């Protein structure tokens, strides 16, 4: 009779350092979710008085509605950030391509340093620059857009003469400042993505007879599509939450209008909170915190959509 010996399992013992490292890694990841949840619960708790008061009053006479209060702020926030993104993304991608594929190394390196330094400039500096220097310089161009034939094809440049007045501290001026602010962020991330394109793929396209532009269009841009989307969403996140620059450039207003040259018609959530925070107490403060909660949810939704777009692009 033959006996079989039990099989020995070769298991590597888990060391104490590995356990500690794993625990710290998992804990650090969970800490992010805990912090987000804590912020959400804080905003919800502090804004509950406004939510309850709005529900009670609307049920009786309808004199107070959070939707009427937050709606114009959300509209102005999305409009300013959207205009800034439309202006910044093409320029940022062009600068990133120039640094990564066109400029000589002696020129690309200092330009990259300047772009990185521009991202570190405080927002209040951009606000001073925009309010004191940029707005007067943009006024002739705004006048041309308002009075020329462009208004027939672009209703966004319309508006009554009473609305389009000097100084033109409108949402378009704020969007230009925001575009300059988010430009270095989008450029820096896009540049790093374009530099990761496999060199062999680029050389293969050139060897097949493609021009420099055809190689970029067929190889570089498809490879960096998801990275450009991520960079754009990072820039959009900053544009949505920017406070001081918008507050110092744009004249506030609470209306729904697409006339981007009109003065005193728009406000963003962040700039409105900063302007009203010092004088608000009680229910007014609760309303401001509710506006902050709405901005928090909008930012979360945009980041979620961006993550979905990046995941879908990476699977192609």
Structural class: mainly alpha
Instruction: Spell out the CATH superfamily of the domain at 70-279.
Output: MetI-like
Beta strand count: 0
What gross morphology would you assign? Answer: flat
Return the CATH class of the domain at 70-279: Mainly Alpha
Q: What's the gyration radius in Å?
A: 26 Å
Query: Termini, distance in Å?
Result: 61 Å
Q: Kindly state the mean pLDDT as a whole number?
A: 84
- Uncertain segments are none
H and E string = HHHHHHHHHHHHH
Number of helices: 13
Task: Return the CATH topology of the domain at 70-279.
Answer: MetI-like fold
Please state roughly what percent of the residues sit in beta strands, choosing from under 5%, 5-15%, 15-25%, 25-35%, 35-45% or over 45%. Answer: under 5%
Q: Tell me which CATH architecture of the domain at 70-279 applies here.
A: Orthogonal Bundle
What do you see in this structure?
It is built from 13 helices and no strands. It is flat. The protein has a domain of 210 residues: MetI-like (MetI-like fold, Orthogonal Bundle).
């Amino acid at each position: 009779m033959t006996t079989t010996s039990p099989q020995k399992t070769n298991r590597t013992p888990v060391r104490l350092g590995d356990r500690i490292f794993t625990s710290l890694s998992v804990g650090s990841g969970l800490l992010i979710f805990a912090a987000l949840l804590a912020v959400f619960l804080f905003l919800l708790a502090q804004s509950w008085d406004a939510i309850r008061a709005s529900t009670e009053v609307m049920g009786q006479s309808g004199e107070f509605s959070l939707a009427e209060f937050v709606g114009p702020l959300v509209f102005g926030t999305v409009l300013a950030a959207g205009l800034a993104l439309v202006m910044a993304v093409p320029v940022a991608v062009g600068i990133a391509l120039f640094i990564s594929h066109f400029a000589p190394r002696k020129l690309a390196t200092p330009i990259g340093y300047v772009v990185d330094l521009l991202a570190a400039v405080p927002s209040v500096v951009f606000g001073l620059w925009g309010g004191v220097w940029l707005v007067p310089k943009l006024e002739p161009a705004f006048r041309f857009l308002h009075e020329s034939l462009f208004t027939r094809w672009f209703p966004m440049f319309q508006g009554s003469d009473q609305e389009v007045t000097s100084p033109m501290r409108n949402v378009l001026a704020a969007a230009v400042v925001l575009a300059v602010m988010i430009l270095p962020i989008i450029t820096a991330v896009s540049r790093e993505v374009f530099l990761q394109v496999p060199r062999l793929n680029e050389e293969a396209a050139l060897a097949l007879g493609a021009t420099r532009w055809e190689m970029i269009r067929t190889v570089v841009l498809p490879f960096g599509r998801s990275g450009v989307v991520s960079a754009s969403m990072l820039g959009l996140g900053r544009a949505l939450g920017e406070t001081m620059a918008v507050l110092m450039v744009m004249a506030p207003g609470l209306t729904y209008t697409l006339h981007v040259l009109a003065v005193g018609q728009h406000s963003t959530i962040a700039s409105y909170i900063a302007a009203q925070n010092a004088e608000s107490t009680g229910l007014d403060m609760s309303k401001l915190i509710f506006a902050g909660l709405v901005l928090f949810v909008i930012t979360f939704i945009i980041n979620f959509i961006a993550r979905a777009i990046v995941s879908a692009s990476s699977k192609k």
